[in-house]
């Protein structure tokens, strides 16, 4: 048992023996055993615990001790610990200062100099996860994010769950198609169980994360391609506009995880409208499926169901009919 553990492990018997030691200038296990009416081995154990907690100090080499004050014991126990903590803190500050100073050198050498203090391009690789980690640690009140693909949910920003458990307001938007995956459902259950919120939309255009309405991390190109890198935005006006856009999306989003029938019907209606939009746009099935975050087979199944509903014989005819049917959002 360490000295600090001993200080936390003083039981009632040891406390009473400490009171006893305060009546004497010096004492040993024989005196303690006689005065406390306990076996000498128990008295020796109690003195050992008091010594480990620095509440008594040895006098000479004959097994005698003298009592000390709790203030002296506190100084003896905590001074080396505090010195170690201060040394580690200085190391952290000096290391951070040194590495932050090298950031400019790295970006200039790689041809990725920051656009300005308000806009910083983060190249593919370790820079994006490092920025995520730093922003997650600094986040203190609210966090909002959009996820496109099913693999991105819970992977790009694994700190979402940890932030929710810290009491931070976490809101996440995903695509409807993602909620059909068991892994995503499990993640959603964990996040909502920790106090977070998850809603869904038929289509999202890019991945982003908003931290305390002070910083935005957004993918460097549309879609869900991690190799594109990201842009860190701290410009207050841009951050405000992005947050307003998220609030608009959040207000129109629903959750297929909700057991309420009305909301489930609304979510299905939104997904049908999104499929109709893709059909009317003339995009290929591959492009449409990717934009809606679903497999090609699933997208074609939705198209087939929509054609049956409209009574269309061809896709071209269906593309014209969705406009007349008012299915375009």
TrEMBL record:
GO MF annotation, one: DNA binding
Annotated HTH luxR-type domain residues: 263-322
One of the protein's GO biological processes: regulation of DNA-templated transcription
Cited InterPro entries: Sig_transdc_resp-reg_C-effctor, TrmB-like, Tscrpt_reg_LuxR_C, WH-like_DNA-bd_sf
Protein name per UniProt: HTH luxR-type domain-containing protein
Source organism: Kutzneria buriramensis
